[in-house]
Each structure stands twice: as C-alpha cells, then as structure tokens.
Design goal:
Chain A has 129 residues and is of the alpha+beta class. Chain A is built from three helices and seven strands, in the order H-E-H-E-E-E-E-E-E-H. In chain B, helix 1 packs antiparallel against helix 6. At the A-B interface, helix 1, strand 1 and helix 3 of A face helix 16, strand 4, helix 17 and strand 11 of B. Strand 1 of chain A pairs antiparallel with strand 4 of chain B.
C-alpha cells in the first residue's frame, strides 16, 4: 500500500503546484465598474451593456470592430476588438469583454454576448410605466 | 393541468417505491412487489407525461408557457419535436424521462442478480424523486399555463380578431424603443378571456420560436445522448450505496462494471457530439472552447473513466480473497461521478455562471437555486456519510505484495492522472463562483503534461503483468514499440514540421499507445473479439490525442476579402467567390466558393442569414473534408458597395449636414399628444421629422416619417431632385435626434445598370488531422461497447 500513496501523493502534489502557479498566471477578475477598468492596465473581464445608440463600427482595413459599453453607474468606454463582429451581436444587450484598457480605449481579445429574452421583458416593463 | 397532475402522481409513486424497496431491504418480505409496482407506475406516468408534452408541442398548443416560449408554427418534424428539451424545464424533464427508463432496465438487471434490487432501486428512486420535484409545479414545471406568471406576448403571435374586446386595452403595451406592441398575459387577462368565451388556443396563434442555433439536426440528437449519459451516472452511485448498505464490497464491482463502462461510453459520445455541433454548425472554429457547460459534463466523465481503471484492479485482486484493492477509492469515485453530474447541473442551471458561459441558462430564481443545493447536499451526505460509517470495514488490510513495476500500480496512476485532470477542469470552471476566471491556456497548459503521462502509461502499462514484472522482461518487450514510436515521432518532426518539444513528447506518447495497443489487439484478435474492448478504446484515445495535436496546435488561419469573381490566394488554395444563392425559401443564403489546388477543384458554400428570432446575422461555416485535413471557411460578412457612397448621419434638433453640396437641417418632430396616445395604445400612428434642404442658396422644406400600421413600422424617404439626394429615415431617438441615410439619387434609382462591387469576407483555416479527433472518439466508444459486452457476461458469474 505504501507505493500507492507515494505515487498518488507525488503526482497530486506536482500537479497542484503547477495548477496553483498557472491559476495565478491566468487568473482574470470580473469587473463591473469601468472606473476600475480604466485606472489599471491589468487584464480583466469587463461586464456591462452595449450602447446601442452609439452603434458599432467595423474597420475593414485594420480588421477591427469597435463599439461603446456602459456600466451600471453610467461610465462609458470605447471597446476595440481585433476581429469581426461576433454572431448575435446585433441583438446583444449584456456584453462581457476580456482585455485591458490602454491609450483611451479597451483592447478586447474576447467578446461574449448574451441576449436572453429576459431583457426584452424588462425593457417592455420599464416603458409601460 | 393534466400534465402536472400526472407528474404529481408519478412523484407519489416514486416516493412509495423508494419506501417499499427500503422496507424490503430492512426485512419486510412482502414489500418488494409494491416497490416494483411503484417504480413501474412512476416510469409509465413519466413517459405518459412526456408523450403529452410532445403532443402539445406538435399540435402547437401555445396555452402552455413552455410551448409558447420555445416553438413556433414555422417549425415542423424533428426540429419541432426537439423543442421538447430547448429550455430548462424541458431539459430537466428529458433527464427525468431518460432516468426513469434507465431505471426500468436497471430493475430488470438487478432482479436477476442476487439481493441487489431493493437496495439499488431504493437509492435510484431517490434520484427520480428529486427530479420529479424539480419538474413539479413548485419549480421547473414544463406544463405551467401561459398565464401562471405575467408574460408579454408580441401582438404578431396573437389573433387580431380579439383585439377589439373591451377589456383588451388594459393589457396592451408598446415598447417605445422598438415600436413593438405587446399584450401582457396574466391571470386577469385569462379570466377576462374565459369570461368572453375565448380559449387560449384561439387567442395565441404562434409561439416565440426556437433560437436558430438550436434549429438543426444536432439539437435532435446531442441532448438525448448526453442526458442518457447523465442518467446512467446515477447507477454506479446506487450500486456503491447499495454495497455500503449491505457492507459487502465484493459483488458490487462486477455488478456495476458494465454500467460504469456503458455510461462512460455514452456520455463520452454525447460530449464529443456537442463538440462536433459547435465545429460544424455554430462556427466556433473549433470543437472545444473550455466553455463551462462543456467542462461540466467532461468532469464527471473523467472521474467515471478513472473509476473504470481502479475497479479493474479491485476485481482482479479479489481473486486472492477479501474485498480487493482500492475498495475505498472505487466507492468514492463512483459516488463522485454522480455528485459531479449534479454539481455540473448546479453550475449551469443556477445562474451562478451568468457572465461566464456562452450558453448557460438565465437565473432561474432563488427557490430553484436552494433546491439544487439541497439536491446535491442530500446525495453528498448520503454517499459520504455511508463511507464514513463503514470506514473501519473498508480499511481491512489487503493481502498482497506490491511492486513499482506492476499493472495495478499503473492502473492506479491512470486513475490519479484522470482525477487530476478532472480537478483542474473543476477548479477552472468553478472559478467564476469566486469572481475569478481562467483563460483557455490554463486548461491547455495543464493538460499537455497530463496527456503525455496518460499516453506513456497507456502504452507501457500494457506491457506490465499483473502484480509484478521483472525489469529485464519489461525492457525486452518494450524495445520494439519504443523504437517504432520514436520513428513515428521523428517523422512528425521532420515531415510534419512540428518542433515544439512538448508537442513532440505528446506525439511520442500517443504513438506508443497506438503501437502497443494495436500490437496486442492483433495478438488477441484470434482469442475472441470480447477481450478487445480496452485496447480499442485506448487506440481511440491515441488517435484522438494525435488529432488534437494537429488540429489545435497547427491550424493556420487567415481572413480574406473576396470580391465577386476575382481569384484570391490563401493557404495554398485559389478561392473564387462566385455569388450567392437563396436556400430554404430564401430565408438563408449560400455563398458559393470555388477552391482550386493544383488540378483539384472543390466547391463549398458557407451560409449566412438574418434570423427573425433575434434580428441577428447568423453564420454557418462550410467545411471541405480532405481526409488528412479540413479546409474550414467561416463567413464574416457580405457587402454590396453600390458606388453611391451611402452615408449615415445622426442629426440633433437644429444640426446640419452637407452632402453633395446640399445642406440638410433637422428642425423638429411632429409628435402631438394624440399621436402619443395612439402610440401608447398600440394603434396606428405616424411621427414626422421636419427637415430643410438648402441647395445653391435655395431652401426647400421636406419631411420623412415613421409610420406604424397594424403593428409593423415603416420608415419613409424623400427624394430631393434639385440636389440629387435621397434621404431615408433610419431611426428616431426619443432624446430628439434622427438617424438618416443619405445617398445620391441617380445611383440609387432602380432602373440604372448596377455598377456594384460585391465583397464577401471570410475566415479560412486549414485544420490538419482533425478527422483523427472524430475517429478517435468513435473508436473509443466502440471499445467501450466491446467492454460492456464482456463485463455483462461476467456480471452473471458467481
């Protein structure tokens, strides 16, 4: 039985150590306050909503896609993504972008859009008041 | 109502069955039959309820909240039928249906093998009881009536004949942003409609529809297979608890073995099918994104596969008497497989991953959240409570001498490595619970060394004998496989151009697995196909790893703009965009590409369309399968540049814009109180924007407007002949601005010959050896099949 514990324990210890190290390396925090996003240049996941009234732009030459996001407190920031418009973006309400804020805009390397029907119902509710 | 009633009776039957089976275990002889009757009644009622829900879906009965929310008249056949599991309620229900059916097979299996049945079925019916509570009217009931909770129905889904009923205006709302009108459906409206003699079926004539990403073949097959895998994960748990109840750890190993194998095979197939769906239809570009929903079904699979390895050791070591080695490990792994299925459900259904997943469900509410915690908690306490209670019996020393070079230890190490992999995915997937998140590279970096160990073990361990092997023997038998694998690796290095040291190590380890397993498989193929299972499964894993190295590590990708009929060169291919053709009644468009490499010509057509469901642009990739690689094309966008240099501007009140030497000024809106009232009431209305155009000092007033008629909106345009400008209204903002599209009149006129330039933008990529990924998984599943057949026979033996 001794061998079992030496083998198992050894492998688990090594992998736990690698995992803790990699976790600390690739750990990304969620941030819903854009003032925090803009003040530091660390990579984070900024959550907010797309400012539909400001529309979005696609730059064919540089292959970038840009739009404006706003957080719950009303802080706005420009987001630039190296790539084209994601599927479903037009109907997205809530957006999560991964990247960091530099030179006056947010450099996104990943965009996640969510368009649950829940939001549509919210919107209707607010306008009926 | 009928559906909820059936499910409620089924819940009572499930509870009854559980109690009767338990009493039988405690020594009451006559309750066994009651337990059986209870279980079978439950299963029949659940199936009846499922048939009833499917009937409501197929007959478009939108009086059910669930049917309204996920289907529509536009769907038919398999696509319509698959809306059964499109939402949370239905997928829980699907899980319940499949669990009930798995239980029927399990009952018959157990009744033929000693005194297993009462213990196993008591635990199993506890699981079905929880699922039945989940779909009861308290939580996620698929039979909830549409008025049971207030919901806004779009007026286009309703029968206009009833709009003039006097009470109707109390329930009408208009969303000012989109101009769409809604009817608020609640119990009041239902009471009013009933009073007027109008049935819900007459009133609601269409449903919201299904997300276009789910409207395809894979939706019809992937969820049922995945949930069959989930349902089968309950079985090892039930066997483990049953063993603990009886305090007998010999028999349960052979009894649960076929179930563990079959469950892992089916769950593995289901998971990879999801990957293929993402690759082939959804255009993720790959088959695995480490998305929480994918991960959470992978975790129990890894643990289940780990348990297979240690169960094998326990079974072999029982030959010398006693309960065998790794009894505790096996019990814990079998318990964990199901607990992790429940945890995965909790992660993806409770809303805790809200921001982290592409397809996690929306927050289902506090009650469901708490219920899920109670569900998991019950099974954790039951399983681990029993293990602790029986600890001293489980710690019974096993008479055996152990050597480093034994197959037992290699199998144990395999289980450890698989569990480590499960732990990594678990930590990464659970990170959002604590406000953190990890990148895909966390998973990838962690798994490369793990996969190398798995590969080496997988090959070399088979050269080891049970218990002990002499060092010299191992050296002798391993020379040829190692030499062959080295040769393959050098080939991959030189011919394939792979230079990354980790990738080469991985390729080497996969090659060893492949060589050793194929050699052994050939040796024993004469001895009968039944013994082949493990070797076939391992060949599958090796192929899979080679496929992953090629497709994940060495994919080349490039974005290309394709002007119509102008050849482009990318990734060694000549690509020509030859135009588009409408398909499926012009609801979708195929963009035809012809590819040329050397003398070979190919044609592929990615698809794009605007979905009515969410007004979004949907894209479907096209794949050219070339055996050793895939040429993968994702469409990005399509533009027709008509040369008129159309221009979009936003003007606030009083703002001006020059275009083609014409100065256009936005003055104000015409939006009096009566128009406002008409708009609020959902009646027809027109909002006018007053503008002025100044051409060479000559002023001219004109107007564009938003016209709403019968719920549909149109924007008008104005032609300014003097200035050669066409002004089209795009949008009105409540804050007091207009969005206009400006274009020159002569170019936008229909009768002029088109000088258009059509440009399709695509992402093209070459994915080498991706077919190995799919074949690998299929071969692995085949291996599981062989093993199930063998172990099923053994499970009868005394």
């Amino acid at each position: 039985m001794k061998n079992k514990y030496i083998f198992g324990g050894g492998i688990i210890t090594i992998f736990l150590a690698i995992m803790v190290y990699l976790f600390s390396q690739s750990n990304i925090q969620y941030e819903s306050n854009f003032q925090n996003v803009m003040s530091k240049d660390k990579v984070c996941k900024a959550t907010g909503s797309w400012v539909k009234s400001k529309n979005f732009e696609t730059d064919k030459v540089h292959r970038t896609f840009s739009f404006y996001m706003v957080d719950e407190k009303g802080n706005e920031m420009k987001v630039v993504y190296n790539g084209t418009i994601p599927n479903n973006f037009e109907s997205a309400k809530s957006v999560v972008v991964t990247g960091s804020y530099k030179d006056g805009y947010f450099h996104a390397r990943d965009i996640l859009t969510k368009c649950p029907s829940k939001y549509q119902e919210d919107k209707v509710k607010s306008s009926s008041l | 109502m009928a559906g909820s009633l059936i499910l409620t009776i089924a819940l009572a039957c499930s509870l009854f069955s559980m109690v009767m089976y338990y009493l039988n275990f405690r020594g009451y002889q006559n309750t066994l039959n009651y337990g059986r009757i209870g279980y079978h009644s439950m299963a029949m009622l659940v199936v009846a309820a499922a048939v009833f829900l499917e009937y409501n879906i197929l007959t478009h009965n939108y009086a059910l909240h669930y049917v309204y929310s996920y289907s529509s008249n536009a769907l038919s056949g398999g696509k319509l039928a698959s809306t059964f599991w499109a939402g949370q309620e239905g997928s829980f229900f699907l899980w319940l249906v499949l669990s009930s059916l798995v239980g029927v097979v399990l009952q018959s299996y157990c009744s033929k093998r000693g005194d297993l049945e009462p213990r196993v079925m008591a635990v199993f019916s506890l699981a079905t009881t929880f699922l039945l509570i989940m779909v009861s009217p308290l939580f996620k009931n698929p039979f909830a009536a549409i008025w049971s909770e207030p919901i806004f129905l779009s007026i286009k889904d309703l029968n206009p004949a009833f709009f003039n009923l006097p009470f109707m205006q109390n329930f009408q709302f208009t969303d000012q942003q989109s101009g769409q009108s809604f009817i608020k459906m609640n119990s009041d409206l239902f009471a009013n409609l009933s009073g007027a003699g109008v049935s819900l079926k007459e009133f609601i004539v269409n449903g919201k529809g299904l997300n276009p990403q789910l409207t395809n073949f894979w939706m019809q097959i992937h969820p049922p297979i995945l949930f069959t895998g989930f349902s089968m994960a309950t079985v090892p748990f039930a066997f483990a608890v049953a063993a603990l109840m009886k305090n007998d750890y010999r028999e349960w190993v052979k009894h649960s073995f076929p179930w563990v194998l079959a469950g892992a095979g089916i769950l593995g197939l289901g998971i990879m099918m999801g990957g293929y769906w993402a690759y082939e239809m959804l255009g993720w570009g790959g088959y695995w994104a480490w998305d929480p929903v994918e991960n959470s079904s992978l975790i129990p699979w890894l643990v289940g596969v780990a348990s297979i390895h240690t169960l094998l050791v326990q079974r072999k070591s029982q030959a010398t008497g006693g309960i065998g080695k790794f009894a505790k490990t096996n019990l814990i792994l079998c318990l964990m497989t199901y607990i992790l299925v429940l945890y995965s459900t909790f992660l993806t259904r409770s809303g805790v991953l809200g921001d982290a997943s592409v397809h996690s469900f929306v927050d289902p509410g506090m009650l469901v959240y708490l219920f899920l915690i109670i569900f998991i908690g019950t099974f954790i306490v039951l399983g681990f409570g029993m293990v602790i209670y029986r600890w001293k019996y489980l710690s019974e020393p096993v008479p055996s001498e152990e050597q480093i070079l034994s197959r037992d230890l290699a199998l144990f190490t395999a289980a450890i490595v698989l569990s480590a992999s499960a732990l990594i995915v678990l930590v990464g997937t659970s990170a959002p619970l604590f406000g953190h998140s990890v990148d895909a590279f966390f998973y990838n970096q962690m798994h490369i060394p793990l996969a190398i160990i798995i590969g080496l073990l997988n090959g070399l361990s088979l050269l080891l004998k049970w218990n002990t092997t002499r060092r010299e023997d191992l050296l002798k038998t391993s020379v040829i496989p190692i030499a062959l694998s080295l040769f393959v690796t050098v080939l991959i290095w030189v011919v394939g151009g792979v230079t990354d040291i980790m990738m080469l190590l991985l390729a080497f380890s996969a090659a060893i697995t492949l060589v050793v397993n194929i050699t052994i498989a050939f040796k024993i193929i004469r001895g009968g196909l039944q013994m082949l299972g493990a070797y076939i499964a391992h060949i599958g894993i090796a192929l899979f790893i080679l496929g992953v190295i090629g497709s994940a590590g060495y994919t080349k990708q490039i974005d290309v703009n394709l002007e119509k009929n102008v050849p482009n060169h990318a990734l060694g291919y000549e690509i020509i965009f030859t135009g588009y053709t409408p398909i499926e009644n012009a609801t979708k468009y195929e963009f035809n590409l012809s590819l040329k490499k050397g003398d070979d010509n190919y044609k592929i057509s990615p698809v794009m369309y605007i979905s009515e469901f969410n007004n979004g642009l949907m894209r479907e990739p096209a794949i050219l399968n070339l055996v050793t690689k895939d040429f993968y094309v994702s469409p990005l966008g399509y533009e027709e540049d008509d040369g008129s240099k159309g221009n979009t501007v936003t003007l606030h009140k009083g703002d001006s814009k020059d275009y083609n030497n014409v100065k256009i000024t936005f003055n104000d809106f015409y939006f009096p109180a009566e128009v406002r009232e008409a708009m609020m009431a959902g009646k027809d209305f027109e909002i006018i924007a007053n503008l002025t155009a100044e051409t060479n000092g000559k002023k001219e007033d004109f107007k564009v407007s938003l016209v709403s008629k019968g719920g549909s909106r149109t924007m008008t345009s104005a032609d300014l002949k003097d200035g050669n400008v066409k002004v089209t209204l795009l949008n009105l903002q409540a804050t007091g601005s207009v969005d206009l599209s400006l274009s020159s009149l002569d170019n936008s006129a229909q009768n002029l010959p088109k000088k258009s330039k059509e440009v399709l933008t695509i992402t093209a990529s070459v994915k080498p050896f991706i077919n190995f990924v799919w074949t690998g998984v299929l071969v692995m599943v085949l291996g599981f099949g062989f093993s199930v057949a063998r172990r099923l026979k053994e499970s009868f033996k005394r």
